[in-house]
Amino acid sequence: MRIQPDGINLLDTVIKVLRDEVLPSLAAEQQYSVRMAINAIGIARRQLVRGDAGEAQEQALLAELLGTGGSHAELSWLLAQRIRDGRAKDNPALRKLLWQLTLQRVAESAPRYLQQENLSLL
Amino acid sequence: MQQHEQQAIENWLAGKTGKPVALHNVRSLSGGAIQENWAADIDLGDEKIEAVIRCDAPSSVSDSLSRGQEFALLKAAFANGVTVPGPLWLGDAAVLGREFFIMRRAAGTAAGHKLVRDLSLAKDRPALTRQLGRELARIHSITPPRDDLDFLAVPEQHPALLFIEESRRFLDDYHSAFPALEWGLNWLEDHLPALEPLCLVHRDFRTGNYMVDGSGLTAVLDWEFTAWSQPLEDLGWLCARCWRFGQSGDEHAVGGIGKRDDLFSGYAEVSGRLPSASEVYYWEVFAHLRWAMIAIKQGERHLSGAEPSLELALTAHIVPELELHILRMTGLEG
Q1: Is there a contact between B236 and B284 (Cβ–Cβ < 8 Å)?
Q2: Chain B residues near residue A79 by CB distance under 8 angstroms
Q3: Which CATH number fits domain B3-104: 3.50.40.10, 3.30.200.20, 3.10.310.10, 3.40.50.10350?
Q4: Quick check: is A121 in a domain?
Q5: Chain B residue closest to A90 (CA)?
Q6: Cα B191 vs. chain centroid, distance in angstroms?
Q7: What is the tens place of the pLDDT at every residue in A39-50?
Q8: Residue A98: which of B171, B320, B332 has the nearest Cβ?
Q9: What is the pLDDT of residues B89-123, one digit of tens each?
Q10: CATH topology of domain B112-329
Q11: Does A108 touch chain B (CB under 8 A)?
């Protein structure tokens, strides 16, 4: 078993150090890099928390709706193709899946958007 | 700037003007990957000029316009009454080994996050918003053909359609799929507006790219993406959610500082055309797609190893919120 605190705990702690100790000690023009670092660590942390289970679930949904197998990447290509061919417009299940896939990407990359726009993951 | 470069500029400018020239207080301004900017105080005979020297970066790899082309645009805009830094001299590439030009230095700041929060800058925000509309109308009054702007390609089809086709070609060859952007591109194709006469379009007219001081707008900057296109493209770009610097609500729809109605009425003051929110809406959707495509390419500069950079890496992570916003704007929601 891995020793505790685990990676997620360490990333949380690094974010706290950067935000509470490093940032206030820097002049305004030097804060930008640290803010970017905090943002990047946050994205990595959220991906780590979600793990691979979410993508596996998406892959299963994609396979079911598209009626074929393949990796997440391959099925995403197929979905993109179906959309370009105009075959998603009148398909409520595909539309819903597109919304869910996109929502999930935002939850990892820019959760602040969901808060600002009062959107929830479910 | 190195001493010998400063001297080379002094010698060249003295030869060009026939007056004694001295550069003082030369200092670097924030520029970008594409060009470098220097502030300089120039003694020209008895005259003192506050100037900016704008150079191509030594390792310029971008497909954006060159400094010589940007100088021609600045002159054309200046002559048409657009508030731009007064263009002074186009440099000879032999002087610095790369293209440069010298323009007057505008007062104030361009920093978007500062402008949206610091209300001591351009205090009258509705007036500033209307002025942005007037500036855009003056830019759009420049139309092809123009011998001085013949480096700008005249698109042979609808500029929006051109973008849709270029984007699809790019996505076909890219390593990751973007289903939500495909959805948005289809929407753009399905809602293509009628082609209007081409005009000069700035294509990066947004908060962060114009300067303001306590009294108001002092300069429209960054003409490196300018092209012949459709006039409402600039209005849509300026109203896109991406440039609001954290401000929300319709009262901040225009670049985080004002209302669409004020922008449109300012535009009408000069152009005689009052754009409707619904016709600009198409170009707002277009703006989010165009920015998403640029963000993917920025991220790829990092990802490919060509230019490792945290800023470029994080730019790729802006794409998902653009995608979700595009879905919401085009009628696909949960």
Answers
A1: yes
A2: 177, 179
A3: 3.30.200.20
A4: no
A5: B332
A6: 25
A7: 999 999 999 999
A8: B332
A9: 999 888 988 889 999 999 998 888 889 989 889 88
A10: Aminoglycoside 3'-phosphotransferase; Chain: A, domain 2 (3.90.1200)
A11: yes
